[in-house]
Amino acid sequence: MKRLLLSLSLATIGLQPVAAEEAAEPQGLTPQILYRFLLGEIAQQRGQGGAAVELFDLLTEESADPVLGRRAAQLAIANNRFGDALRLTARWYNNSKSPEAAEWLVALALRSPDPERSRIPLQQVLTDAGSRREALWRYYAEQLPEAGSPTAIYPLTRDLTEPYKTEAGAWWVRANAAAQVNRKDEALDALEQALRLNDNFEDAAVLRAQLRARNGLAEASKQLQAYVSSHPKAMRARLMLALSLADLKRGQEALVMLQALRKEAPESAEVAYQLGRQLAGMGQGKAAEGALQDAIRLRYRDTDTAYLLLGRLAAERDDVDAALRAWDEVEGGAFLNAQRQAAELLARKGRLAEARSRVSEAIAQQPAARREFLRIDARVLSLAGQQQQAYDVLSEALQGSADESETDLLYDRALVAEKMNRLDWLERDLRAILKTQPENSTALNALGYTLADRTDRHTEALTLISKALEKEPDNPAILDSMGWVKFKLGQLAEATDYLRTAYSKLQEPDVAAHLGEVLWLTGKQAEARALLQDALKKHPDEAVLLDVMKRLQVK
């Protein structure tokens, strides 16, 4: 696995091996060296990578030709001989002083489990860089996320940048290295130094805001606003400011900024995507779809996310075929999520056979994810009202299970059991989870809520929900459960407080129904009516809302 990860990480910086027939030939060399060169290439072609590296190691000892140097390093990388790759790249650099060799050396050194061994070569690279050093600093910073040992990289980086305190790039590198090991104050100090030396250093301003956001979005937004005011052309900073405003619920301001950025940077896929995302969040689905399609056309870096959102928007306007087309474009890690949404949409539309067929096809495509797709299969059966069949699918998946996914399957089966009115089965599965994971807040909350809502075991329910809330004090689902059990216990003032807090964080039908009922029964009928009617407008077919309004005779 480590060998594979090394290859993949090196691929991201372009250190890919080329095929033998594509490798450049060295020029002006003796017949003997050319003969060894060809022997090395043939060895690599025949899968004898170790022999190829050894031959090129000897060749680069005899010749300083940069083509040989580059190929030697490249073959060492291709054959996952990390130590040889670092040594041969250093030799290539010493012989050629090539900017490309310098970058490879930086990339390999940062990926090393022992970067300290590369201190002297890195010092030499930085000394030699001269006018190219600013670009090298940026490259160094770009490679830091791939660091093999961030804790070792930070002190080394601090020492390497020490002679260059008058260069903003050096402070930029130091800030990034500090941020990687959560030395926030040191990172911020370094960023201030970078900006003092170069007030137009937009990346530094953006990273400073990102770090300050950990203390609160308002502070980060304020600092970005100040920077943007003095640097109105700073596109990345303006984009960051727009996103921070959106996070602060200042959606209209964010939208205006994003629309302006879209006009100024029509070829920016990032801006197009963020505009589409903001429009979607503000209920402007048609405009959002146009922006997202632009982002995809412009080759947005994460097309899967764009297609997921496009599918959701199409589903919201009841265009099932368009939603399915969008979700079918999703690949990679988001494939399962896309297929889940597609199957659930089909099930809600009464197209259960299509939904299950889609799940079967997905299992054939990704058999390793079979268990997760079986959970989706059970979900669509449950949505279609076929609870017993859903229960059976989950029971089959659980047979012989002995890994962590058993918890998810047990939880899913417990939810189905609740719909079958088999609270004994629900309790059995949730307690099975709690037996192995007594701090599992999801299971604690589910069992506590069910006992509060469906039984008279309210004191026991309170104990379970309280324990869950200790683990996740800001979780709106658990706050809702606490409000509901307080209501069942007759503690109406506390119930109202918990439910208000829950609804401020999660405007879901269940929470609205709970808060509306408590408000109604505590004499706040006008507020309850307004809340329930508003929730019903957003969720016109939700049974839980229709039921509570019928019981309370809310019109």
From TrEMBL:
Keywords of this entry: Coiled coil, Repeat, Signal, TPR repeat
N-terminal signal peptide: 1-19
Keyword Zinc: no
PANTHER family (UniProt xref): LIPOPOLYSACCHARIDE ASSEMBLY PROTEIN B, TPR REPEAT-CONTAINING PROTEIN PA4667
Domain of life according to the entry: Bacteria
The protein, known as: Tetratricopeptide repeat protein
Coiled coil: 174-204
Keyword Coiled coil listed: yes
SUPFAM superfamilies found in the cross-reference section: TPR-like
